[in-house]
Structure formats: C-alpha cells, structure tokens
Design a protein that fits this description.
2 domains; membrane; two-stranded antiparallel ribbon; alpha+beta; 11-stranded mixed beta sheet; 43% helix; 14 helices; 399 residues; Alpha-D-Glucose-1,6-Bisphosphate, Chain A, domain 4
Amino acid sequence: MSLIGVFHQSSVVVMDIIGSLVTFIAPLWIAVIFGVVVGWAWKPKWAIDPNNYSWTQFFKFRVPWNTDSDLQSQPGSSYSTSSGSSESEKGLKCVVTEHDLRYLSKLVEEKDGGPAWIQMMDRSTPTMSYQAWRRDQESGPPQYRSRTVFENASPELVRDFFWDDEYRLRWDDMLIHASTIQECEVTGTMIVHWVRKFPFFCSDREYIIGRRIWDAERAYYCVTKGVPCSSMPRHSKPKRVDLYYSSYCVRAVKSRNDGQLTSCEVLLFHYEDMGIPWEIAKLGVRQGMWGAVKKFDPGLRTYKKERDSGVPLSRCANAAKFNTKVTADYVRSVEDSTSNLLETENQEDSSDKPIGRSIPKLLVVGGAIALACTLDQGLVTKAVIFGIARRFGKFGRRL
C-alpha cells in the first residue's frame, strides 16, 4: 500500500513538472514565432542604412509579390537606354577593367590564393554535364564554382546564350525584368538592370550589373559584377544587391563522345550578398541548384534552333560580339601579375555589410531549447537540434 502511495506521489510530482514546463514553453514558442514573423515582415531602414533613410517613414512592410509593372511605375526609375555619347563611353571604360580580367583569370586557373573548393554536386544528362563546388571565406558570403560542359555547342553560341537578356527572360524563371542602362560599342562594356524573383519569404532583389567580354583566341572571359549607377536611385522595393560577382570563362573542350573539340566548357564563379543569413542562403542554393541548372541545356538547344532558322539577333546578343580582343599570352601574363586590386576591393565591400541581417543568437538558442524540450524523441533528436542551433550561433557572430 505504501508503494502505491509513493508511486502516486511521484506521478503527481512528474505531472507538476510537466505542467510547469508547458507553462514555460508555450510563451517562449509564441515569442519565437512572433519574432521570426516580425523579423521577416518588417524592414527598419533607419537601422540598415541610416544615412540614406527617409525619416518620414519609420517602418516599411516587405511585399514579396512585386511585378514588373510596379517597378516601371516607381518615380525616378529609368528603363530607357542611355545615349552612346563619348563621355559615357569614357566612363564605361572604368566600370569593368583589366583588374577584373586578372581576377577572373586567376580564378579560372585556381591561382587566386583562396581556400580549397569543396565539391557539392556532380550531375549529367546525355548532352550536358555539371559539377559544382563551394568554399567559405573568413569574411564575406560563400563562393561557388561550377563547370558546365555542353556537347555539340560552339563557344560563340554559348557566349551569346548567357549574354542574351531578352532570351534569358524566357528560360530563367527567377529573372522578371532586364533592361540595358548604358553600353559602349568600342569595348562592349554594358551596364544592365536586373530584377530577380525570390521565394515567398523574401522580397525581390535588384541588381545593377557592369559586364564586359575579353576574347582570348576564342576563350571568352565574361565578367559580370555589381556596380554603382547614379542614374538608378535606390528604392525600398526591390532591395538592391550591391555585392554581386558572377563571372565565367567560355571555351572549347574535347567531347566525351568522340574526343574532338566540339563541346563547350563554362567555368563559372559566383557570390553575392542577398541580405539574408548565409547559412539559409547556402541551404537554398543546395536545394535549388540542379532545378535551375537543368534548364540550361533545353534553353540552349532551342536558342540554337532559332539562330539556325535565321531569327535576328537581339540587342544583347549583338552586343556580345563587341568585345576586347587579346592573346592567350596576354592572359597568361595577366595571371602572373602579383597585384590583385579587385580582390582587395571585394574584401572591403564585404566588410561593409548591413546591420541587422544576422539572427540574434538568443532567439536561435531559445527556439532550439523550446523545440528540444517539446519533442520527446530521445537524445539523438535533441543533439541534432542543439547542433543546428550552435552552428547558427557561430555564423551569427560572424555577421
């Protein structure tokens, strides 16, 4: 009888503990959910960029479903191409320079001195193969390197395919707007305006991109990077991405079928600061990479058929033919140069990160505690949850 009484008393104590835990966990969970929702829904511009903030507006809601018509109706936005005056052409020569060629060539030859690349994907189709790598810098967003090989495709066709913004709008689901701001018919340098669509929890992103092509004996070094542009003022929506680099080298390689130089290789190097935590960005890239990449090949084959049928070139595709001719020896001499000013500039840009895009460590760890205590799935589940929280806490300190 006494044993039953002790057991009953122990059960009462356990129920009291469980009740106390529930009383503690429920408000914490509500606070965590509320904090995450508010963090994504509200955008305190005074904290992100106090110098350029208009204090007549204190908080702005993000609207993730902007359309191209909304962008065109914004005051101060220019969607017409600037006239090709001599002054603008001189200014364009400073947008993408030989330093950019030096940086890209070192990346192509893996002589940039950065961390080792970690392979993250190796996929193929009958007419295309794709490999991807990633590396994390001590400061700045994660960097990606990929190698795509198209069977039975010329370097010129692939160059035009990726340069043709008008055609890209047909096969790239993420690109919702593309226009040319300025161009130079001497060097082929262009400044273009892009708006890309992001998932529902994140607003669209705007890019002002400077780009230029160097032709090194049919090896095309295509530099595209984020640049400032005084004629395109900032707006609260869409959010502008300042740190953006997505450059590649297009050249002929031997086919895996017959060993002849009938295939085309694209070595791409990409990184950008989209204004979201880098760990979340890496997860999104890893999950959506192949879904985006596998659209390249059918898009390229359709593009080739249209070109073969005599469809006239678009303005952007025609601009790809205006490039800077150099020799392969010149590119090798550039690679051997000891200075790397562009890399220094990128590190300086990455250090000027917006405030308030990191996840507070207390919020992450508190949410992990609530989740671990709520789920009764054993020690392994709790260890995984706390491991994830610890990882997020580490990158929160880096931001």
